Amino acid sequence: MSSSELDTGVPAPATIEVDEAYLAFVRERRAAILARLEAACARSGRSASEVTLDAVSKTVGPAEVLAAMRAGYTSFAENRPQELVRKLDAFAAAGIEAPRFDMIGNLQKNKINAVLGRASLVQSISSLTLAQAVSSRAERTGLTVPVLLECNVSGELSKGGFAPDEVRAAADELGALPALSIEGVMCMAPAHDADAARRTFAGARELREELRGRMGFALPTLSCGMSDDFEIAVEEGSTLVRLGRIVFSAEYDLA
Length: 255
Description:
By secondary structure, the chain is of the alpha/beta class.
């Protein structure tokens, strides 16, 4: 699928201008985030080098992404294929090497081609049928797609993903798909409930361990934790946290 087939209606800028005041804010905020990350790792006997920060850029534009890159972020995430394409086009038009972008949102089958070869990691493989569709499209183009299995560990009806029993039952079929490289598990926790978040993250870690045994894969990545709960996720073993508002918004309260 070409960029024109996912026209966002917003032309890619020929240049990307970074506001220096905003850059200073992002740098200061990053220092605060890293301090919290290091403290969470220390509490759980881990090294901060074990955890990747995905800066979730879905609510900001290319200029804010570039500011975050200059502040030290190297990995970003988008939840809509259209926005992924728009940002990559903007960097290409400006002659700037684009950073890594992951796909974290619900992936519709008719948008699979838009992320192939563009997203470094598709974190939202939420069903066997979606996994089969991604593998089939990728196989036709000679690609192997790194993916995470999105698992609804909390059981909330509002959240997508495999139920734990579903992913267990599908493990053999998932593992046999020729064009997928299954790298681990992704989950989301209930909002505004620290105890429920901890149970969810611990459950995701245990599910990943079980799937390692069933599938015979290393599954190095456990993607869980967002702006409000990433410290709990890190304490429970997360190797990749997805941070949006806390990275990009001055309105986010760190207290």
